[in-house]
Design a protein that fits this description.
- The structure holds 2 protein chains of 2 kinds.
- Chain A is of the alpha/beta class.
- Chain A is 37% helix and 25% strand.
- Chain A has 7 helices and 11 strands.
- Chain A is globular, with a radius of gyration of 18 Å.
- Chain B is α+β, with helices and mostly antiparallel strands.
- Helices cover 48% and strands 17% of the residues of chain B.
- Chain B is built from 4 helices and 3 strands.
- In chain B, strands 1-2-3 form a 3-stranded antiparallel β-sheet.
- In chain B, α3 packs across α4.
- Chain B is globular, with a radius of gyration of 13 Å.
- The chains are: A alpha/beta, B alpha+beta.
- At the A-B interface, α5 and α6 of A face β1 and β2 of B.
C-alpha cells in the first residue's frame, strides 16, 4: 500500500517497511489537507505530524480489513518462534506485562513485534501477527510476521490467575479491542469472519494479573508449554 | 414495530451477535449477544411486524405455551426499547 505523509514522523516510522519491489500497492492511505488542519486545531495539545499519524493509522486499520487483515489493540511479542498477543483497554498495562516477559525470559528471547496495534492476517488459513508502522504511544515495532500462538486478554488484579475462555465468550473482547468505528456492512462482515476463524484456530485466555514477574511466569507456563 | 436500520446480525464462534454498522455505530457503540430465540425474534423484527404476529411465529417455531412466548416477547422488546433500538 501507499502511505502518503507530509511529515518525517510517519515517514521515519515507515522506513523499515518500505517495499523496494515493483508490486502494485493494494490501496492508498492519506489524510486530506483541510481535514488535517481542522483536526489539528481541535486537538491543540498535539502537533500536526502526530495528528496526521493518528488518522493515517485509523484509515489504514479500516482499509486493511478488506485485504484480509485486522489490527488487534494489543502488545504483541515474538517468543520461541510464535507471536503472543496481550490485549486490553488502554491503561490496563499491556506494555507493562510484555516488559515483564522481557525481564524474566530475556530481551534476546522476547521481541516486541508491535506494542499497541499488531496486524493479524491469514496465510493459507493460518493466523499470523505482523508488525506495522503504527504502534501507539511507545512506537515500538519490528517488521516481521510470526504464527500466532495465543491471544490473552488482560485484566488488572491483586492475584495472578489465568483461564482459557471459550471462543464465543471472547467475541465481545475482540470487538472491543479491534477499534471498530463506523464500519460499513461488508467491512464489518469481513472483520467478523476473520475473528471467527481466529477464535476457532488458536487458544484464547483471560489473564488477571498484577505487575509482578509472577504474572509473566504464570502466563508463559500456561500459554506456551500447552502447545 | 421494527428494529432500527444499521445493525448487522451475524453467526460467529457458535453464537449470534449484533453490531452497529455505519452511522448507527455513533449512537450505539457496543454489541449485543443473542440466544437462539433472541436471534429468531431479531430477524423477524428487521421488518415491520405486529406483536400478535410475533407471538404466532414464535409459538409456531418453538414448542412453548402462549403465556411463556408472550412473556419472552415482552421481555425482549422491553430490552430493545431500553437500548433505543426499536422505532
Amino acid at each position: 500500500m501507499n502511505i502518503h505523509s507530509r511529515f518525517d514522523f510517519t515517514n521515519n516510522l515507515c522506513r523499515p517497511y518500505v517495499d523496494n519491489g515493483n508490486r502494485e500497492p493494494l490501496f492508498d492511505v492519506r489524510v486530506g489537507e483541510s481535514f488535517l488542519k481542522k483536526e489539528t486545531e481541535k486537538n491543540s495539545h498535539l502537533t500536526p505530524d502526530v495528528v496526521e499519524h493518528i488518522f493515517l493509522a485509523s484509515a489504514f486499520y479500516k482499509q486493511i480489513i478488506n485485504f484480509g487483515g485486522f489490527l488487534l489493540h494489543s502488545s504483541c511479542i515474538l517468543y520461541k518462534g510464535k507471536a503472543y498477543l496481550f490485549s486490553a483497554p488502554s491503561k490496563t498495562g499491556k506494555s507493562t506485562h510484555t516488559r515483564l516477559w522481557q525481564a524474566v525470559f530475556g530481551k534476546e528471547n522476547v521481541k516486541i513485534i508491535n506494542d499497541d496495534m499488531p496486524l493479524v492476517k491469514f496465510t493459507d488459513g493460518r493466523p499470523f501477527a505482523c508488525g506495522t508502522p503504527f504502534a501507539g504511544g511507545t512506537d515500538i515495532n519490528i517488521n516481521t510476521c510470526a504464527p500466532i500462538g495465543a491471544v490473552v486478554f488482560l485484566e488488572r488484579a491483586e492475584q495472578n490467575q489465568i483461564e482459557r475462555i471459550q471462543p464465543f465468550s471472547s467475541i465481545p473482547l475482540f470487538i472491543e479491542q479491534t477499534k471498530h468505528f463506523n464500519l460499513d456492512t461488508s467491512t464489518y462482515t469481513a472483520l467478523l469472519d476473520m475473528i471467527d476463524v481466529l477464535t476457532a484456530s488458536i487458544p484464547i485466555y483471560r489473564l488477571r494479573c498484577n505487575k509482578n514477574e509472577g504474572a509473566a511466569i504464570l502466563a508463559e507456563k500456561t500459554i506456551v508449554t500447552q502447545e | 414495530m421494527k428494529i432500527k436500520d444499521g445493525f448487522l446480525l451475524r453467526q460467529i464462534a457458535g453464537g449470534t451477535v449484533v453490531v452497529p454498522v455505519g452511522k448507527a455505530s455513533v449512537d450505539f457503540n457496543g454489541m449485543i449477544t443473542l440466544n437462539e430465540t433472541g436471534a429468531f425474534l431479531w430477524k423477524l423484527l428487521e421488518n415491520d411486524i405486529s406483536e400478535v404476529e410475533l407471538l404466532q411465529r414464535l409459538t409456531a417455531e418453538y414448542d412453548i405455551s402462549e403465556d411463556i412466548a408472550k412473556a419472552d416477547i415482552n421481555a425482549f422488546i422491553g430490552k430493545l426499547k431500553d437500548a433505543g433500538l426499536i422505532d
